[in-house]
User: Which sequence fits this backbone?
C-alpha cells in the first residue's frame, strides 16, 4: 500500500493523519482502528456476562463482562450461554431498552480505544472518531453512541471529537464515488442508498434481510441433506454457506438445468477433516442459499416460510412500510423512483455492492448459470428497465473494510469547526463544547 | 576547512536576499545577518565514510540547538549525500535548515527561527513546481523505454548468449553482464537526472520530495494511505459546511 505525507500533499492537520479513528458497528463484527494502520482490527460483536464464579476468582478473573473475541475463551465458564451471551446488534440496530446490549456496545467501544492507547505520542490529546451505523438507525442509537463516547472520554481522555455517518455513505467514500447507488448488505440488513454528495435520505430503502437469512437457508439445506446435527454449530453453517452457496442468474432455469444434469452440481463440502457434506442428487439446493438475498419471495422458498425459517420483518421508513421480502431489484427501483428524474440514470450508472453478503463463488463448470453478485444485479436491473439505462454494477474493492475506510477518511477530513447538529445528524461532537 | 568554491555560491545566495556576511563567527563556516536575523551556515563535505559524516552532522545539530548563537542555522552540502543526512523529521524537529550547494544554492529545507519556539517556518524562497520541466523528464523516460531495454538484455541472455546452458562461454557471459550493467546504469542515470531536473526546475516541495527519496520508514510513520490521498471525497468533506449538507 502506498502512503504519502499528509500536511505537505494535502494541507491537512498531521494530527488527524495520526489520530483519525473509525468504528464500524456491524451485526456480526465490530471493526475499529486508526487510519495509520491502513486496515481495521476486527472482533466479534458480542459480549458474555460472566456469572459469579469461585473458579474464575481463583484464577484471578474478576470481570463481569467480556466482549469480542475474548468471549470464546470464557464461553465454557457460564452455565447458560443463551442467557449470558449477548449479540447487541440485530438487523444493524441495538434495541432502545436493551441495557445489556448497550453495556456490550460500551465495552466493545472502550476496548477498541484501549487497544490503541499505546499507539499515541506526546502530542496526543484524543482521537477524532467517526462511527458508522445503519442508514436507517433511529435517533436513539445516535444519542446513546454520543453519550457512550462522551463517557469514555471523561474517564480516559481518548475521544477528542466524535461523529456518526451512515454506513452507505462510508462505502461511497471508501469507493471514491461521489454519485452512485450503494447497496450495503451485511449480516442483519440490506440498505439501498442513493448517494449524491451525501446519502439522499428520502430515497433510502432498507430491507431487514442479509447474511442471517442465507445462514438460515444454509442450515435448512443441511437438515434436508441429513446433517441436522450440524445446525447448532455457527461456524459449520457459515463455512457450508460460503463453500456451497451459489447465486443463479435465473433460479428457475438453474433448477431445471440442475435436475436435468444432477451430476454437474454434485459436490462435497468439507467442513473439517472429519465432516464432509455430500449433496448427492440435490445439488440444486446450493442455489437457494445465494438466491435468498436477491428474492426470498420466490415460490421455491414457500416451504421454508411455512416452516418459519424466513421470518423477515418489514422496515418502516417514515410513513412507508417496506416488506422484508421485497425482491432486491424492486427495492432498487423503489429507491430510484424517489430521486429527481434528472439524476436517476446517473445514480444507476454506478451501482456498488458492499458487505460480506455479496461474495459468492462461481465454479468454472457452472459459468453462465451461477454468477457473481454484480452480474446478477445487472441482469435483474436490465430486465426490469429493458436495457434502457446504461447500468454498471461492481463489488466494492474492499467489501469487508470499506465502511471502516469511509469512517477514517471522514475523521481525517471533516473540518474542526464543523459542529454536531441534530438536524443534519452531522458534524463533530466535541470535548469542551458538547461534553 | 571548506574552500571558497563552496562558500562563494552560499555568499551570493544570502547577499542576493539582502543579508550581509558576518566576519566574527563561532562554530560555523559562514554567517549572515539582515540586521534582525543572524544565520549560521555549517558546510559539510565528504572526506571519510558516509557514517562518519552523518555523525558529524547530527553532532552539529545538537551543538547548534544547545548554543543558539545564531537565530537560524543551515547545514550546507556540496551535492546531496542522502545517506549522510539525518531524517527529515530530525530537521523538522530541530528547525535546522538544509542547503544544497553546487554552482547555485538550493534551500531544500527552510530553517526555523530558534527563538520562535518553532511556530513560524520562514522559507527564503518557494518557487512553484515547473510542470513543463516535469513533462520533459517524463517524455525522456518514455523515449528511452527502459523496460524494453532491460527486457531485451535479459532476452539476450536467454536466447542468444546461452543457447546451450552447459557450454557457458566466459567471454560471452562477460558481454551479457556488461550489457545488463549498461542498462542498469542508464536507468540509474535517468533517475538521477530526473531528480536533478525536478529540483533545478524549481520543485520546492522540498520536504516531501526529500523524504520520499531519503527515508521511506519515516514517511510511513506519518502517512495517509493512498486511498485517502487520491480520494475526491476528502476535498468535499474538508469543505463541508452547513449549507452543503443533504443534496
Assistant:
Amino acid at each position: 500500500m502506498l502512503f504519502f505525507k499528509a500536511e505537505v500533499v494535502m494541507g491537512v492537520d498531521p494530527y488527524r493523519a495520526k489520530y483519525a479513528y473509525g468504528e464500524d458497528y456491524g451485526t456480526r463484527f465490530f471493526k475499529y482502528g486508526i487510519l495509520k494502520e491502513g486496515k481495521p482490527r476486527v472482533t466479534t460483536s458480542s459480549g458474555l456476562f460472566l456469572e459469579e464464579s469461585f473458579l474464575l476468582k481463583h484464577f484471578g478473573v474478576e470481570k463481569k463482562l467480556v466482549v469480542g473475541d475474548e468471549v470464546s475463551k470464557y464461553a465454557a465458564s457460564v452455565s447458560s450461554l443463551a442467557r449470558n451471551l449477548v449479540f447487541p446488534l440485530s438487523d444493524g440496530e441495538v434495541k432502545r431498552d436493551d441495557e445489556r446490549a448497550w453495556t456490550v456496545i460500551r465495552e466493545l467501544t472502550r476496548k477498541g480505544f484501549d487497544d490503541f492507547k499505546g499507539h499515541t505520542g506526546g502530542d496526543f490529546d484524543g482521537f477524532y472518531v467517526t462511527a458508522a451505523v445503519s442508514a436507517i438507525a433511529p435517533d436513539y442509537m445516535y444519542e446513546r453512541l454520543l453519550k457512550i463516547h462522551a463517557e469514555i472520554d471523561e474517564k480516559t481522555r481518548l475521544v477528542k471529537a466524535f461523529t456518526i455517518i451512515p454506513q452507505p455513505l462510508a462505502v461511497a467514500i471508501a469507493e471514491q464515488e461521489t454519485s452512485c447507488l450503494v447497496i450495503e448488505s451485511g449480516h442483519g440488513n440490506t440498505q439501498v442508498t442513493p448517494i449524491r454528495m451525501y446519502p439522499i435520505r428520502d430515497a433510502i430503502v432498507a430491507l431487514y434481510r442479509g447474511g442471517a437469512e442465507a445462514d438460515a437457508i444454509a442450515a435448512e439445506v443441511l437438515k434436508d441433506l441429513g446433517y441436522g446435527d450440524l445446525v447448532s454449530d455457527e461456524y459449520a453453517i457459515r463455512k457450508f454457506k460460503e463453500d456451497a452457496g451459489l447465486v443463479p442468474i435465473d433460479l428457475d432455469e438453474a433448477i431445471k438445468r440442475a435436475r436435468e444434469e444432477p451430476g454437474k452440481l454434485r459436490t462435497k463440502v468439507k467442513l473439517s477433516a472429519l465432516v464432509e457434506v455430500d449433496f448427492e442428487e440435490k445439488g440444486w439446493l446450493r442455489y437457494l442459499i445465494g438466491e435468498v438475498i436477491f428474492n426470498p419471495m420466490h415460490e421455491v422458498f414457500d416451504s421454508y416460510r411455512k416452516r418459519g425459517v424466513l421470518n423477515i420483518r418489514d422496515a418502516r421508513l417514515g410513513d412507508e412500510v417496506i416488506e422484508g421480502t421485497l425482491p432486491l431489484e424492486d427495492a432498487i427501483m423503489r429507491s430510484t423512483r424517489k430521486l429527481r428524474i434528472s439524476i436517476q440514470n446517473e445514480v444507476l450508472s454506478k451501482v456498488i455492492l458492499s458487505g460480506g453478503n455479496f461474495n459468492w463463488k462461481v465454479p468454472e463448470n457452472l459459468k453462465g448459470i451461477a454468477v457473481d453478485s454484480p452480474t446478477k444485479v445487472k441482469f435483474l436491473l436490465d430486465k426490469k428497465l429493458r436495457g434502457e439505462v446504461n447500468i454498471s454494477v461492481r463489488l466494492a474493492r474492499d467489501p469487508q473494510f470499506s465502511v471502516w475506510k469511509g469512517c477514517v477518511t471522514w475523521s481525517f477530513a471533516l473540518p474542526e469547526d464543523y459542529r454536531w447538529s441534530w438536524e443534519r445528524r452531522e458534524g463533530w461532537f466535541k470535548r469542551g463544547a458538547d461534553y | 576547512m571548506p574552500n571558497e568554491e563552496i562558500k562563494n555560491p552560499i555568499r551570493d545566495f544570502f547577499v542576493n536576499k539582502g543579508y550581509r556576511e558576518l566576519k566574527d563567527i563561532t562554530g560555523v563556516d559562514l554567517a549572515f545577518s539582515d540586521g534582525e536575523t543572524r544565520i549560521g551556515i555549517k558546510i559539510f563535505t565528504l572526506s571519510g565514510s558516509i557514517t562518519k559524516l552523518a555523525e558529524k552532522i547530527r553532532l552539529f545539530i545538537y551543538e547548534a540547538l544547545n548554543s543558539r548563537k545564531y537565530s537560524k542555522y543551515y547545514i550546507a552540502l556540496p551535492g546531496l549525500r542522502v545517506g549522510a543526512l539525518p531524517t527529515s523529521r530530525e530537521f523538522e524537529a530541530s528547525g535546522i535548515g538544509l542547503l544544497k550547494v553546487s554552482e547555485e544554492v538550493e534551500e531544500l529545507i527552510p530553517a526555523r527561527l530558534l527563538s520562535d519556539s518553532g511556530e513560524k517556518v520562514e522559507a527564503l524562497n518557494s518557487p512553484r513546481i515547473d510542470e513543463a520541466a516535469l513533462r520533459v523528464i517524463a517524455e525522456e523516460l518514455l523515449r528511452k523505454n527502459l523496460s524494453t531495454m532491460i527486457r531485451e538484455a535479459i532476452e539476450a541472455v536467454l536466447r542468444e548468449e546461452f543457447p546451450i546452458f552447459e557450454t557457458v562461454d566466459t567471454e560471452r557471459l562477460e558481454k551479457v553482464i556488461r550489457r545488463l550493467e549498461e542498462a542498469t546504469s542508464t536507468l540509474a542515470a535517468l533517475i538521477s537526472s530526473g531528480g536533478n531536473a525536478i529540483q533545478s526546475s524549481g520543485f520546492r516541495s522540498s520536504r516531501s520530495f526529500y523524504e520520499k527519496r531519503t527515508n521511506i520508514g519515516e514517511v510511513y510513520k506519518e502517512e495517509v494511505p493512498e486511498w485517502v490521498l487520491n480520494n475526491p471525497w476528502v476535498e468535499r468533506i474538508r469543505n463541508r459546511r452547513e449549507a452543503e449538507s443533504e443534496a
Remarks:
- The interface with chain A takes residues 205, 207-208, 211-212, 219-220, 222-242, 244-247 of chain B (CB under 8 Å).
- The first helix of chain B runs from residue 4 to 15.
